[in-house]
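Quarterly update from the structural biology core.
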Amino acid sequence: MRIRLIVVSAIGVVALSGAAVVALGSGTGAGIPEEVAHEAKYQGLDPYLLGVLVEREGVSLDHTGSATELRSAARRLRRGIDRHQTVVGAIAATRAGDEQVSRWLADDPVVATSAEAIPDPEVREFVLGVLAGAGVSSTPTGTDR
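Predicted structure, tokenized:
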């Protein structure tokens, strides 16, 4: 059984089923800092999602180590998407780690599509904040077989 998810954002609508779809819309990155848009494109990520994630993680793009921190955040998000096959799981993994998210997904598959189902309140609020900041709301719509 696979969960199907409809993602509605300010930049587009897409159905996610099975493998995660990372580009949440047109992905042009308008209004996103150039460094973020470049790294997002390189990693195959939505620039709005990456931009909000690095902002929430406190990455400042104004200092010498910022490129390394940005690249690290993008790689963690990409790795989380590849491993957990969901944007919610990937964002959670940047905060709680891959192993913890894997346990949550094994215990409750709804965590894959609903940040509200994340048992750790700090991680749940972080994920909800990133999704809201990127203009994304998620709604489970049923299952695929």
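Helices lie at 34-43, 47-56, 66-84, 87-96, 98-107, 121-133.
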